[in-house]
Write a structure and sequence with these properties.
single chain; 554 residues; mainly alpha; three-stranded antiparallel sheet; 15 strands; 48% helix
Length: 554
């Protein structure tokens, strides 16, 4: 028996002369609150708001991916799939429990008792082999500091109350909640007894009201006084025909000049409804979460529900994730290994918003491509990804800080003109291209493809009327559009291939000039012949071929 174990002359978890609160709760079903309800860590879960709050915390910790990573020497990290703790945290901490169930259980203990305990089973070399959850009641697991060696141990008892061997702190996975000694967390239920008791009392009141149907829907009055027989007959008829389940709200048959008046909801009933709503807010406030997570959408709207979800991760779950991560790194891992909860997906905006945000930071030189990949949880692409770019046709910071020497001014009249140097041969297309170069070319091909489709549609429309007059003005305007479209891709290409001769305006001018010269060959045609020729010519345009012509043949 548990009480027999507690009265043994060994170090006791609680004495009977001055019992601790947990023992009083265990024997008496909880502390009596001012509302008349007994509340302990078990009975509190009968309160729907408490059950919802504890479940939300436990299930969130259980569903977020938890992995072990190995730090790289030069920066970055890799998933440590071969580390034994990865299997324990991500898949199965012991042969009886899955990872999600294990984390849900411990977080549930934290949400009720304020502490989560699990014994670490180790191999002879000290490596963790399994993690076994333990019950959090102080009568089952309780930390203490040994008076001799001043070390922390955990005093444990089995289900019969028998004392087990003390477990050293290094072999006990212990996550304490909020507390003042840094060792044991306070029980949230113990601090919320009165609030929970009020909720339970309000729920009991409502249940009894519906069970007894004590408040009638109306009041029947008669003139004069009923005799004993008539009164008893009317009372019996009301109780038998209307007070039982399935017989309420039936039509009443009145006799003897009786009158019926509808009863209105009294102020006390209205206050009881408000009290139940306020009770949900009180529980949500204590567990530091928005009421909408407890299914109270009174203050939730479509415009703020997303932000409330982000705040839940930041202000409610982040402290719990940190407690878990700290204890895992202390007891189960050693450098260069560390664990991480992958909760970023809960904080991120939609893909379009994130892409615009990253692009603006990259465009102003605030971040590099590798910085963006790191924030997205991916590894970098190498040294090329550490380059920073700034506007002015997207030049590198180094070029912006150290601009090239300006070209010498042309000679004055009468001076001997320098000999004209022979035109340099355009650079040959490199046999092998880096990943960054290929990516930049992909961006340029995509941009030129969009420009070609725009030109083709405009040319087909102009072929129906005024093709020759349309051609010149269109390409004069279109050159600036092409320049803006290829600016970002040209900047990356310049850095990857060290092509100082390539700029956005050079690419745009060469591209539009080539397209204009092709279309000018069709100026002599008209009617259907012109329309067919324009459609055939534009259909044969290829953005990749045109890019290679501009870069290496122009």
């Amino acid at each position: 028996m548990l009480l027999d174990g507690l009265t043994k002359p060994i170090k006791m978890l609680s004495g009977l002369s001055a019992p601790e609160q947990w023992l009083i709760d265990w024997v008496g079903g909880g502390s009596m609150t001012a509302s008349g309800e007994k509340v302990n860590e078990d009975t509190a879960l009968a309160c729907a708001a408490v059950k919802a709050a504890v479940t939300v915390l436990a299930e969130t910790v259980a569903c977020v991916s938890l992995d072990v990573f190995r730090d790289r020497k030069g920066g970055g990290k890799d998933l440590a799939t071969d580390h034994p703790v990865q299997w324990l945290l991500h898949d199965q901490p012991n042969e009886e429990t899955g990872s999600s169930t294990f984390r849900e259980t411990l977080q549930g203990h934290l949400g009720t008792w304020g502490n989560g305990y699990a014994e670490i089973q180790r191999l002879r070399n000290g490596a963790p082999a399994a993690i076994w959850q333990r019950l959090p009641q102080p009568g089952r697991t309780k930390p203490f500091r040994d008076e001799k060696d001043k070390r922390i141990y955990y005093e444990c008892r089995d289900e019969k109350g028998a004392l087990e061997a003390n477990i050293p702190a290094a072999d006990m996975f212990h996550i304490p909640g909020f507390g003042f000694d840094g060792l044991v967390g306070y029980s949230p239920i113990g601090h919320l007894r009165e609030a929970i008791g009020s909720n339970l009392a309000a729920e009991r009141y409502a249940s009894e009201l519906f069970a007894n149907d004590a408040r009638p829907n109306g009041v029947v009055t008669v003139e004069g006084e009923l005799g004993d027989e008539a009164y008893n007959r009317a009372k019996k008829q009301f109780n038998e025909d209307r007070a039982e389940h399935g017989k309420r709200h039936r039509t009443m048959l009145l006799e003897g000049g009786a009158k019926y008046a509808v009863a209105q909801m009294n102020p006390e009933d209205v206050q009881m409804i408000d009290a139940r709503k306020f009770g949900v807010e009180e529980i949500a406030r204590a567990y530091r979460m928005s009421p909408h997570l407890l299914q109270d959408l009174t203050h939730g709207t479509f415009s703020n529900i997303t932000e409330l979800g982000r705040q839940f991760i930041v202000f409610t779950m982040m402290p719990w994730f940190t407690r878990w991560r700290t204890e895992i790194n202390r007891k189960l891992l050693k450098p260069p290994y560390h664990c991480r909860f992958n909760y970023k997906s809960f904080l991120e905006a939609d893909h379009k918003t994130r892409a615009e945000f990253y692009f603006r930071l990259w465009q102003m030189g605030a971040v590099t491509a590798n910085d963006i990949l790191d924030r997205e949880g991916e590894n970098g692409i190498g040294p090329e990804g550490d380059l920073r770019f700034v506007p002015v046709n997207m030049q590198t910071l180094e070029t912006a800080m150290n601009p090239p020497e300006p070209a010498p001014a042309p000679g004055t009249p009468g001076e001997e003109k320098p000999e004209k140097k022979p035109q340099e041969k355009p650079p040959e297309k490199p046999e092998k291209q880096s990943a960054v170069s290929n990516a930049a070319r992909g961006v340029l091909v995509d941009a030129l493809g969009r420009m070609m489709r725009k030109e083709a549609n405009a040319a087909k429309r102009a072929a129906k009327n005024g093709f020759a007059d349309w051609l010149g003005p269109f390409y004069e305007r279109h050159e600036q559009t092409v320049c803006e479209a290829v600016a970002s891709g040209v900047a990356v290409l310049r850095a990857a291939e060290r092509r100082d001769d390539v700029t956005a305006d050079v690419i745009a001018h060469a591209y539009t000039q080539a397209a204009r010269e092709e279309l000018e060959k069709l100026v002599g045609l008209d009617g259907e012949a012109l329309a067919e020729a324009v459609a055939e010519m534009t259909a044969a345009w290829n953005p990749e071929t045109r890019l290679n012509e501009v870069l290496y043949d122009g």
